[in-house]
Amino acid sequence: MQYEPVIGLEIHAELLTRSKMFCGCPVVDFTQAPPNSAVCPVCAGMPGTLPVVNRQAVELALRVALALQCQIAPVSLFARKNYFYPDLPKGYQISQYEYPLAQHGKLPIQTADGERLIRIRRVHLEEDTGKLTHVIGEKESYSLVDLNRAGVPLLEIVTEPDIHTLEELRAFAEGMRHLLRVLGVNSGDMEKGVIRFEANVSLRTVGSAELGTRVEIKNLNSFRALIRATAYQIEQQMAALQRGETIEQETLGWDDTSEMTFSQRSKEEAHDYRYFPEPDLPPLVVEHAWLERVAASLPELPFARLKRFQTQYGLSAEDAALLIAEYLIADYFEETVQAAPGVAPRMIASWITGELFAWLNQSGERLEEIKVSPAGLGELLRLVAQDEINLNTAKTVLSEMLRTGRTAGQIVAERGLKQISDADQIARWVARVLAENPQELKSYLSGKETLINWFFGQVMRLAGGRADPQQLRQELEKQLQSMKSNSS
Ligand code: ADP
Ligand code: ZN
Ligand code: MG
């Protein structure tokens, strides 16, 4: 029997607001702020307190819902999800249940097999829990509770079970993270746990329309964990089905060190959250005018930009993806194209993904900090395109520009780097190198033709690196050719 994986994802993303979802406490970086330094009676779950919805959180959620082409509910409801856990001081989480903010969206992904749409089932708002630290000591063991994260706005995005390969899974997860960053709603810092995945995994016989029994793997905090855990489950289920066993519905955890899933609870032990509408909050109303304002403020979406970079600028899919991975870089590219009419955009892209990326890596500078503006890079590449300087010189000049902040024009003029394309001058250099190296010339004429590259290097050195390389090569070939005819 041939089986195919069926995967549905739940994504939890913290929203980049300044204050929490239902109170005025600041959202702090839990790696920096002292524990329980950003807590008030509302997020500590004191009786008698009342929540108030954070408007900015709703706005950020709307950005995501619009970008995912969802239908947005003009009125949605908050609900209480009841369960007891020490990181949840109220004893319930405020979430959305029957009436979520948005439904029926889609996110396009690109894989080697082409483009696919992954359907989004729903997008809703909720609040994060606190953080527990379990300390296991020799004499005593205990757990520490930090409520700084309790009440931080959280967006939950749930897909339809539309993902069928690990490649699609990766493309979707990375695409989602990229989208959230581009929309400015999430930092994308996965090490800090600001995006968490849950993978629902089942198998079905190829061609069957029915879904198999699924397991749910909780708390996958990195792409690596998401992919590994899913791959592991697919293998386990494949083996079980082949042994003639049936799959039990259960909730699993993932152990990063042993790289295995472990059972957290079976179907029988499943929680009954006793959802009911949150009585302390009015229905969430999204007025049309608000929605239109948010829609108008959206940036160009990653998938559209990726395509446009290929069609408008003739870039390869790889180069386009490298550039749009960071929108500041993509903007830098487009500004350079503007600043350098007559320079092929492909050439600009390859200078950015080559020389500029190398500099960013090596210097540790961020793009916002570098000393070369798009106009500055454009000026340099215009000099190359107009044959004023050759490629090697341009690389040297760029690295000096990056170090000193001086312009290409200044450096080229001061250091006399202008490319030399004077035919007589080049012919004289070639003749001189051939005359000064009789040994090598002899070897060349007796058949060691690769020596032409050595001669090329010698002439270029004599020319201080400034000779027009194409002209130099032609002249060198010409003189060698005529010697060959003379000697035979
Ligand atoms: P819950 O986890 O609260 O029970 P749902 O039943 O709505 O929620 O499903 C949650 C996720 O599981 C969704 O992403 C959905 O696409 C996915 N899913 C549901 N059934 C299956 C299945 N048989 N195989 C794989 N994924 C599934
Ligand atoms: Zn608070
Ligand atoms: Mg679930």
For the biggest sheet, the summary is: 9 strands, mixed
N- to C-terminal distance: 73 Å
Q: What is the general shape?
A: elongated
Helix content, binned percent:
40-55%
By secondary-structure content and strand pairing, the structural class works out as alpha+beta
Strand content: 15-25%
List cofactors, ions and other ligands.
adenosine-5'-diphosphate, zinc ion, magnesium ion
Number of helices: 15
How many whole angstroms does the radius of gyration measure?
A: 31 Å
- Uncertain stretches: none
Mean pLDDT: 93
In a few lines, what is going on in this structure?
The chain contains 15 helices and 16 strands. The chain has helices spanning 55-67, 166-182, 223-242, 288-296, 302-313, 317-324, 327-339, 345-363, 374-385, 391-404, 408-414, 423-436, 438-445, 451-462, 469-487; strands at residues 3-14, 71-72, 75-76, 79-82, 92-95, 102-111, 114-127, 131-136, 141-146, 153-159, 195-205, 215-220, 250-255, 260-266, 276-277, 284-285.
Q: What are the SSEs and their pairings?
A:
Layout: E1 3-14, H1 55-67, E2 71-72, E3 75-76, E4 79-82, E5 92-95, E6 102-111, E7 114-127, E8 131-136, E9 141-146, E10 153-159, H2 166-182, E11 195-205, E12 215-220, H3 223-242, E13 250-255, E14 260-266, E15 276-277, E16 284-285, H4 288-296, H5 302-313, H6 317-324, H7 327-339, H8 345-363, H9 374-385, H10 391-404, H11 408-414, H12 423-436, H13 438-445, H14 451-462, H15 469-487
Parallel strand pairs: 12-13
Antiparallel strand pairs: 1-10, 1-11, 2-6, 3-16, 4-5, 4-15, 6-7, 7-10, 8-9, 11-12, 13-14
Helix pairs in contact: 2-3, 5-6, 6-8, 7-8, 7-9, 9-10, 12-14, 12-15, 14-15
Magnesium ion binds next to loops.
